[in-house]
Amino acid sequence: MISDKISYNRAVHRIETANFAHKKGYYYSCASNLYFALFNYMQSVLGKTYTGKWKHIGIFKAFSRFSMERELFSERELKDIGKAYAGLYELRRQADYENSTYESYTIERLRYLSEFVAEILSHVNKS
User: Fold this and answer.
1) Which of 3, 70, 11, 35 minimizes the C-alpha distance to 78?
2) Quick one: DSSP state of residue 124?
3) For residues 76-94, average pLDDT
4) Does the pLDDT value for residue 25 go beyond 70?
5) What is the dihedral of CA 73, 76, 81, 87, to 10 degrees?
6) Which CATH number describes the domain made up of 5-125?
7) Is the dihedral of CA 31, 34, 40, 42 positive or negative?
8) Span 3-22, average pLDDT
9) Could you tell me the residue ranges of all domains in the chain?
């Protein structure tokens, strides 16, 4: 299922970094690394694109179509992945570009999203 091992290894390193950041209270770093863990995972499944690199907005659509065609994830799982990706995109945007603080529910949500993304990455071993 993995076409690009370098991107997969990046995804694994990013999830580990996100977990470390969360434990240390570095929630912005956690959010950014979770987002890129999922982004890199999708890159690893899709492989190289003809344009040379994947765009943040288009990658999930391509990943969803690719996964449905190959039955890598169920429709429900893809819907959940899409929601997580959109949520992480927003959290990363806030972390990188806004002058705001995360509320306690967002910090707890990051913990859940970390577990969710780690589960997605482990899916490679199930296919």
Assistant:
1) 70
2) G
3) 96
4) yes
5) 170
6) 1.20.120.330
7) negative
8) 95
9) 5-125
